[in-house]
Amino acid sequence: VNDGKIKIYGVAEKFLRANLTFDEVIFPAELGAELVLTIHNYTKQTLDKLDFNFGPFQLELIIDESGHPFFVELEASAIGSYLSEWMVPGTSSNDMIFDSIKLATAEKVETTVEKTALRSLLKYYYAEHLGIIDSISVSNINRRIMFKSYFNSGQHVKNKRMYIANSLILG
User: Fold this and answer.
1) Tens digits of per-residue pLDDT, 32-87?
2) Phi then psi for 103, rounded to 5 degrees?
């Protein structure tokens, strides 16, 4: 947001499954145009009501079965690392981090969002048991699949809810 002009890079959709032991994020979300418009309008109304008129932000919402958004959180920062570092630039020519730097240094930020047909899927993998990791083995099918491990062989997993790795699939 800069002087009331909002650049919405897109809507991400998060799925929680199996008692929070597995989740994934799709960007841009596979939502109908009407629901995306509802989310954009709700975002603009929320920012206006909070008098939020400068800086990067992440707005988290819950959408009920009828398509009505409910406010969860507004974070005055660029979206989490994988969305801002990989998912947004990987699916378009938009760069949230670069735009945030431009905003902080009073440079002009283009508000147009370039969209492509590409999608990103971020999957989180959680430990089934506590203990020491024997090994992590990954096969990349092609250059459109990236894998980032947060733990290495021999490291101790202290909490089952701590995610071990994630993969980003583009295309």
Assistant:
1) 999 999 999 999 999 999 999 888 898 999 999 899 999 999 988 877 767 787 78
2) -65, -45
Locate tokens 């801002």: which residue? 84
The β-bridge relationship of strands 120-126 and 58-63 is unpaired
Residues 45/8, Cβ–Cβ less than 8 Å: no
Handedness of CA 138, 139, 142, 143 (dihedral sign): positive
Model pLDDT for residues 85-107, shown as the tens digit of each residue:
778 887 888 888 889 889 889 99
SS3 of 38-85: the string is HHHHHHHHHHHHCCCCECCCEEEEEECCCCCEEEEEEECCCCCHHHHH
Per the CB < 8 A criterion, the answer to whether 94 and 78 are in contact is no
Q: Could you give the CA distance from residue 32 to residue 14 in angstroms, rounded to a whole number?
A: 16
The one-letter amino acid at 108: K
Q: Write the burial class of residue 99 (CB in 10 Å: 0-12 exposed, 13-18 middle, 19+ buried).
A: buried
